[in-house]
Amino acid sequence: MFAVLLLDPDMVVREANPAAEDLLHRSARRLVGERLLDVIGLDDERVAHRLGDADARLTVRGMVMRCGERAMQVNVTVSPLATHPGWRVMTFSEVGQGELGDEGRDETTLRAPSILAHEIKNPLAAIRGAGQLVARKLDEKDRPLAAMISAEVDRIARLVDRMQRLGSERADPVEPTNLHEAIRSAIATVRAAGGGGVELVEEFDPSLPPVLASRDALEQVLINLVTNARDACAGGEEPRVVIRTRFVSGLVSNLKLGRAIRLPIEVTVSDNGPGVDPSLRDHVFEPFVTSKSSGQGLGLALVRKLVRDMDGRIGHQRDERAGLTHFRIHLPLAREEGEPA
Ligand SMILES: Nc1ncnc2c1ncn2[C@@H]1O[C@H](COP(=O)(O)OP(=O)(O)O)[C@@H](O)[C@H]1O
Ligand SMILES: [Mg+2]
């Protein structure tokens, strides 16, 4: 049960549901008319600051909220009311003990996309069939467009399959994969979806050996990262996304079956946008975390799951001086040195 507060443009509580009364230990009568920040205290200055922006849509997970003497950890959403400028609906749910573990949290929150996935597959089959029919009527020069419909529908269908398995332990099988081919197709897909005037630049180390990965998963990871990077810088001056690959020796490793495996293949997607919103910085890889009005907040959750399935690592950094945001993946080699060919 979600606690819900209706806030007016002055951030005064106008309505509170019973769950909000329970959570805040106050009757609705004693909540209504109070200023929100007199009722609850937010330790996170940046969230408090974001709340000052009446148009901001906000999702924060695991935020510490004080209420009188009590401190609790809550998931919070804030949504503007389209019909009433300045008014907002705020929901809270306390983070339960069972939910605190990182893995457990994924399980519960990912059931919704699994249901959605089910609903997507039938229309996809119809789109694919219609695409094939249309292709027959097209001129030779327009056929590649129809081929793209089929290819993309197939990719989405596979993605949907994966979403259904997001909560499960199963991983796509990995095999020696050409990293640069995967990156190029990902870039082509993002371009076809409308680049938004953003320059997409490849900086590849052509001598890189094959990576141990699932081709589909890798492509999906890159599409998601490049799309986010494009979204992030699209509004700015000379928007630019750079996809860089390089070999990094030593250091980065992962443990599997008690054995360290090295992750020397590095892919970095960098953009010159403003960077990840500070209130989201530690949460971007969690499902349903988004700062976009039409975002689903599933892109990076899927990226994290797919990268982990490939025994890889993902992280993000901000280089304030250079004005760049980096999302960086590390992956294993197809073959460790010393292993037979
Ligand atoms: N390159 C980036 N620069 C700034 N913010 C980013 C970047 N990539 C991701 N984010 C933030 O992470 C959020 C979650 O991303 P994602 O999981 O792909 O969901 P969505 O793109 O649907 O919002 C985005 O809404 C955005 O706030
Ligand atoms: Mg995204």
Q: How does this model look, in words?
A:
There is one protein chain. With 341 residues, the chain is an alpha+beta fold. It has three domains: 95 residues, Beta-Lactamase (2-Layer Sandwich); 49 residues; 157 residues, Heat Shock Protein 90 (2-Layer Sandwich), CATH 3.30.565. The protein has ten helices and 15 strands. The strands form four sheets. It has a six-stranded antiparallel β-sheet with strand order 2-1-6-5-4-3. Strand 4 and strand 5 form a beta hairpin. Helix 6 runs antiparallel to helix 7, helix 8 packs across helix 9 and helix 9 packs antiparallel against helix 10. The radius of gyration is 23 Å and the shape is globular. The termini are far apart. Bound molecules: adenosine-5'-diphosphate (ADP) and magnesium ion. It is an enzyme of class 2 (transferase). Its EC number is 2.7.13.3. It catalyses: ATP + protein L-histidine = ADP + protein N-phospho-L-histidine.
Determine the fraction of residues in helical runs and give it as a percent range.
25-40%
- CATH level 4 superfamily of the largest domain: Histidine kinase-like ATPase, C-terminal domain
Strand order of the largest sheet: 2-1-6-5-4-3
Gyration radius (Cα, Å) is: 23 Å
The assigned CATH architecture of the largest domain is 2-Layer Sandwich
Q: What are the secondary-structure elements, in order, as H or E? A: EEHHHEHEEEHHHEHEEHEEEEHEE
The beta-strand count equals 15
Major sheet characteristics: 6 strands, antiparallel
